[in-house]
């Protein structure tokens, strides 16, 4: 069974919400839409207080090369444009809209009818993805259209679709595999046209047997699309690891997947591409898992962007012993320190952790057991990077490859001394990156 060779761990998958069909979350009375929901420059607001907007209307325009358009997820009146705190407490520019009905822009197809015939050509598909603000929905939120704006000498041999969903708890990809496979396959076909790739490979971990069977059967209609069963191992869905597992090609340090003839997209992103290309529908809603061991009501929701996250949490009931909320998975997600924030494009999950799970163990001295080295999928020496970062020796951090760290958390997961390895590596990576940028000026 295919997998990457170096490092990796086997945390409990805890796919507790996998049997919960996707439910549409109620539209709130007011939404707050951040103009930074993607990697790159923030979008520029093109509406003002008092303006009437419809669902799908452009409200934030991407003006930088790496940026993404932002669209209204509701119809109503712009209440204000203000600086609003995100889940981490940092204030970002946002458009606040009072909801009045649910009127969509006339050029958006809102019917549930499956449209399989793609009429747009390569450039039109790329333009449509850009216009509709499509970003990677696997976590990084990189503007999707940028991946397909290739130089003449760049050639795509493999279009890889990441359906591994290796993060514990998250089940949105899995539910889309079961519920929206036909739409996603059309989306993949559109990406094949956009990339000129001869083949698309959908990588799925083998703990999703029913999804593999369904997708394999439906993909028979598409000779360019192949379903690849992967070994269940974290972080199987990381770009470099997925490329290595499926193609046996290795992305060199400092290089991109396209440098080895690959483009990687998340499976949920392919559904967004389908809606953009076939329905002219921008990203105005997201799929998110709400889960946790102590929750009785674990859900997969379809949520309008800008919905208050506390309303999502309260809908499933917040247990008294909750110790932490995480946006995303437990390995690479971010702790939610501000519950008065709002849903964004990259919010794939809201995870509830009880006090015993959330509480950190007391760390002790490193015993040089080497478990963090064995677990690191990038072949680094995490224990050494932690020490160098703690000592603020950032030139040495650079020498030992800290910028190649993907912050997957494998090192800290299995540390018997409970060392805060990833915390220090993140700080060191940030400081080293700043040092490198200053040196390049």
Which key terms come to mind for this protein?
alpha/beta; six-stranded mixed beta sheet; 20% strand; Rossmann fold; globular; 441 residues; four-stranded antiparallel beta sheet
Could you please describe the fold and organization of this structure?
By secondary structure, this protein is α/β, with parallel strands linked by helices. It has 14 helices and 17 strands. Among the domains are: 122-279, NADH-ubiquinone oxidoreductase 51kDa subunit (Rossmann fold); 371-440, no CATH class. The protein has a 6-stranded mixed β-sheet with strand order 1-14-13-17-15-16. The chain has a 4-stranded antiparallel β-sheet with strand order 2-8-7-4, with no helix packed on it.
CATH superfamily of the domain at 122-279: NADH-ubiquinone oxidoreductase 51kDa subunit
Q: Tell me, rounded to a whole number, the average pLDDT.
A: 95
State the low-pLDDT regions, or none. none
Helical coverage, percent range: 25-40%
Task: Determine Rg (CA atoms, Å).
Answer: 21 Å
Question: Would you state the CATH class of the domain at 122-279?
Answer: Alpha Beta
Q: What structural category arises from helix and sheet content?
A: alpha/beta
Largest sheet: 6 strands, mixed
Q: Helix segment count?
A: 14
Secondary-structure map:
Elements lengths: L21 E3 L5 E5 L9 E2 L6 E2 L4 E4 L8 E2 L4 E10 L5 E9 L22 H10 L12 H4 L10 E5 L9 H8 L1 H15 L4 E6 L3 H10 L6 E6 L8 H9 L14 E5 H13 L5 E7 L7 E6 L4 H8 L5 E6 L6 E2 L13 E6 H4 L12 H5 L6 H9 L3 H6 L10 H4 L7 H20 L1
Parallel strand pairs: 1-14, 9-10, 9-12, 10-11, 13-17
Antiparallel strand pairs: 2-8, 3-5, 4-7, 5-6, 7-8, 13-14, 15-16, 15-17
Helix pairs in contact: 1-4, 4-7, 11-14
């Amino acid at each position: 069974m295919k997998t990457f060779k170096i490092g990796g761990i086997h945390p409990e998958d805890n796919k507790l919400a996998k049997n919960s069909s996707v439910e549409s979350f109620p539209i709130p009375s007011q939404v707050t839409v951040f103009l930074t929901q993607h990697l790159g420059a923030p979008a520029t607001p093109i509406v003002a207080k008092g303006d009437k907007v419809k669902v799908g209307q452009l409200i934030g325009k991407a003006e930088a090369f790496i940026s993404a358009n932002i669209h209204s997820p509701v119809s109503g009146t712009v209440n204000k444009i203000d600086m609003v705190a995100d889940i981490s407490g940092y204030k970002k520019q946002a458009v606040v809209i009072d909801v009045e009905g649910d009127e969509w822009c006339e050029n958006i197809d809102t019917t549930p009818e499956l449209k399989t015939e793609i009429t747009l050509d390569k450039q039109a598909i790329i333009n449509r993805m850009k216009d509709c603000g499509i970003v990677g929905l696997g976590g990084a939120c990189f503007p999707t259209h940028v991946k397909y704006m290739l130089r003449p000498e760049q050639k795509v041999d493999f279009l890889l679709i990441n359906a591994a969903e290796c993060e514990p708890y998250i089940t949105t990809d899995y539910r889309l595999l079961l519920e929206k496979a036909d739409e996603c396959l059309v989306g993949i076909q559109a990406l094949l046209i956009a990339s000129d790739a001869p083949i698309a490979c959908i990588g799925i971990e083998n703990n999703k047997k029913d999804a593999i069977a369904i997708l394999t059967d439906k993909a028979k209609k598409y000779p360019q699309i192949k379903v690849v069963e992967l070994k269940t191992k974290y972080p199987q869905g990381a770009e470099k690891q997925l490329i290595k597992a499926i193609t046996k090609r290795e992305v060199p340090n400092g290089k991109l997947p396209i440098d080895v003839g690959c483009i990687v997209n998340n499976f949920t992103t392919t559904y967004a591409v389908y809606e953009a290309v076939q329905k002219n529908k921008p990203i105005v809603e997201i799929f998110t898992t709400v889960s946790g061991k102590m929750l009785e009501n674990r859900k997969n929701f379809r949520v309008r962007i800008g919905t208050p996250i506390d309303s999502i949490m309260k809908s499933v009931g917040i247990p008294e012993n909750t110790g932490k909320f995480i946006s995303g998975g437990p390995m690479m997600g971010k702790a939610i320190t501000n519950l008065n924030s709002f849903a964004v494009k990259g919010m794939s999950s809201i995870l509830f952790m009880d006090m015993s799970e959330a509480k950190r163990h007391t760390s002790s001295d490193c015993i040089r057991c080497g478990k963090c080295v064995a677990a690191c999928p990038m072949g680094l020496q995490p224990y050494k990077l932690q020490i160098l970062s703690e000592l603020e020796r950032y030139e040495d951090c650079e020498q030992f490859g800290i910028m190649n760290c993907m912050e997957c958390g494998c090192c800290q997961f299995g540390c018997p001394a409970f060392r805060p390895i990833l915390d220090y590596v993140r700080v060191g990576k940030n400081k080293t990156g700043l040092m490198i940028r200053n040196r390049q000026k």
